[in-house]
Amino acid sequence: MKSLICAENLSFRYHGSKNWALKEVDLKISQGEFVLICGQSGSGKSTLLRCFNGLVPQFYQGDFVGEVFVDGMNTKHTPVYKLSQIAGLVFSDPESQLITLEVERDVAFGPENLGLNREEIVERVEWAINSVNISHIRHKPPFELSGGEQQKAAIASILALKPKILVLDEPTANLDPVSAKNVIELVSSLNSKGVTVVCAEHRLEMLSSHAMRVIVLNEGSILMDDRPEKVFSSDIIEEIGIEAPSIYRFIKFAKDTGVNLPLLKSWKELFQLLHQGTIVDKT
Questions:
Q1: Is the domain 3-86+163-244 a CATH 2.60.120.10 member?
Q2: How many Å apart are CA 111 and CA 124, to the nearest integer?
Q3: Residue 150: which residues within 8 A CB-CB, separation 6 or more?
Q4: Where would you tag: which of 26, 71, 148, 257 has the fewest CB atoms within 10 A of its CB?
């Protein structure tokens, strides 16, 4: 499968800092993947995401070592506006990306700045708005929206650029549980339609069941890179202060009490197997 993102020996230190935000990171992300990046605050998650659309090192200055390629383009030498059409970045605070007084105008802002013709702009705006189901708020000012609606509007504004990769930096950080669930289900739906998703998040409970792969960052380095079942059942997660989703904690508890359960990604899977009466293996 084609690699859309490739980081080779990537290290970065912000200007004026003594510490490296990223250290010798090597990774490849393929087309169609849903990759969850987790780690403690300060582990380098946001910095890594900024490398994917050229904000690091083109906007955020510092010592940049190694190479990052996005869809074959070197991020050090390719303009950010061009990279953003491949890797669209959604920030944790959607208000920072909603800059006009109407949602529809925000969604149109990116395509307009690409110099597209009117017909193409209208087509992209309609597609993006319909993709995230926000037709009912398209004419509202962003400041009147709920946090979940703002996040959906921000995602629509990025989708209007038609990127191959949707990059999200803690998209549920400021959302209530219901809004967070809606946004995650939206992102998962987009992934099922072929959009590659790379998401940094600390609220793992809702996201873990959607991810195909989990990358754990610790002090700027990749500590683990594997399937969710492998990562969240590892003792390493707990050792660095990350709480695994509850389904994995339950499976570990069951094992400690003498009941072996298969590695599952969600409570739904567990309940389905329990209903079938085929999963319990007492040791």
A1: no
A2: 8
A3: 94, 95, 98, 142
A4: 257
At 213, the amino acid letter reads R
Residue with tokens 């003792």: 235
CA-wise closest residue to 62 among 23, 94, 17: 17
| Cβ atoms of residues 231 and 33 within 8 Å | no
d(CA 159, CA 166): 8
Parallel, antiparallel or unpaired: strands 259-260 and 221-226? unpaired
The burial class, CB within 10 Å (0-12 / 13-18 / 19+), for 136 is: exposed
Q: How far apart are CA 49 and CA 60, in angstroms?
A: 12
Q: Are 86 and 21 in contact (CB under 8 A)?
A: no
Which residue spans within the chain are E strands per DSSP? 3-14, 22-30, 34-38, 62-70, 73-74, 87-90, 165-169, 196-200, 213-218, 221-226, 259-260, 281-282
Q: What is the pLDDT along the chain (283 residues), one digit of tens a residue?
A: 678 999 999 999 999 999 999 999 999 999 999 999 999 999 999 999 999 999 999 999 999 999 999 999 999 999 999 999 999 999 888 888 899 999 999 999 999 999 999 999 999 999 999 988 899 999 999 999 998 899 999 999 999 999 999 999 998 887 888 888 888 998 999 999 999 999 999 889 889 989 999 999 999 999 999 999 899 989 898 899 999 888 888 888 888 888 777 777 777 777 777 777 665 554 4
Which pTM value belongs to this model?
A: 0.89
Mutual angle of helices 103-113 and 118-131, in 10-degree steps = 130
| Alpha helix (H) residue ranges in 1-102 | 45-51, 55-58, 80-83
What tokens appear for 147 in the block?
A: 């946090």
